[in-house]
Amino acid sequence: MNSPEIMEALQALAAEKGMTTEVLLEAVANGLESAYKRREGAAEQAYVIIDESFNITVYAQEVDELGNVLREWDDTPHDLGRIVAQTVRQVLNQRIREVERDMKYDEYAGREGDIVTGIIQQNDARYTLLDLGRVEALLPQSEQVPYERPEPNSRLKAYIVEVRKTAKGPQIVVSRTHPGLIRELFKLEVPEISDGVVEMKACAREPGHRTKIAVWSNDPNIDPVGACVGARGSRVRQVVNELRGEKIDIVPFSDDLHDFVAKALSPARVREVRFHSDNGVAEVIVPDHQLSLAIGREGQNARLAARLTGWRIDIKSETQIAEEEAGYGGEDWAEGEWVTDSETGEQTWVPADGSEAITAGQWSEAATEQADVEPSAADPPNGAPAAAPEEASDAASEAAPAAVVPAEALTDPSTLRSDPATS
């Protein structure tokens, strides 16, 4: 059968779909082979050959029990034209869909850790669909920033955490909460990071609220913090805008742990850092007026600093340290709790052993008068009203998991996985 028009049509179709003519010819041959074997009296073993002029020949074979070919002959049906007309369209459409799915998967396979830009197509309580052009990306609810609700048809950048191969094509799972998104956004805005001159050593993030990153320069002539901030804050501003106003603290990384922990608590000023390696606690001493700033709102600053450095951080004011060193506070105080009057706001220490309660003011007076006296078992722990912010700092530090997010983890999608089926 000589059909040059069909061959030209196949060549045009292959060029349009971005595949080779051989792939389409193979699909047609397989379809014709299946159609031939369904005919009455057809040989059990057969194969189809299609040459460059679209001449089609069906060869039947006789084989023995071991699979050896005993005889082969031309068994091309006389009504092959009708069979071709019925088969080609169905087989080609199916094969083209399969090849396109494979090509789409190959395009994104291995791209975990990259950043993509998509247009929001669908947004509901379970997931958001992003149109990436040839494919769609799935942004599960668990990977979305709380309270972030981008408008439909708006553009959004996201971080690829997984590429799955399914029967319907590749499924690309993206994230807006992964720490790696921060690194890739800075990589787009800061040439020094993309060139490898400046490295992002660690990142701690509370999506939608605040992020701390530690940067390091391989060139002593380049300031890593200044490179990330840019002229008048232009570079970091672009990242903040993409994150819908999320605050970003950029601190210099240091091999000196004392300096690194102190810088991690920025913008607060730190007087001293004491490390307790036995329990992994870094005791940080700050001026009295810097205590609330070091702890941060709801302990956020201390929490992020702990994640960034990998140390549990216990923040204390200079007054608290002075009282402890003078003999007040410590582990030998009686157990109890501070009770705050809802109307007056006055704090009262209520010992657990049933001893007489004492107000914060009374305790301060007693502490002043008995500065040279060893504290008794009935005295309240950690001293007077200053215990409230100290407890907040301890709580903020203990609530934060002491896990460092190193630079290599920022590109490791396994650090954050989600299953859209369960989202």
Description:
Residues 328-333, 370-405 and 413-423 have low confidence and may be disordered. The strands form five sheets. Strands 4-5-6-8-7 form a five-stranded mixed β-barrel. A three-stranded antiparallel sheet has the order 1-2-3. A three-stranded mixed sheet has the order 9-10-11, sandwiched between helices. The longest helix is centred in the N-terminal third of the chain and has 29 residues, at 80-108. The protein starts with a helix and ends in a 24-residue tail after the last helix. The chain contains 13 helices and 17 strands. 34% of the residues lie in helices and 26% in strands. The protein has 423 residues and is α+β, with helices and mostly antiparallel strands. The protein has helices spanning 4-17, 21-37, 80-108, 179-189, 191-194, 224-229, 234-242, 257-264, 291-295, 300-309, 318-325, 360-369, 387-399; strands at 45-50, 56-63, 69-74, 115-123, 127-131, 136-140, 155-166, 169-175, 198-206, 210-217, 247-252, 272-276, 281-286, 312-317, 336-340, 347-351, 358-359.
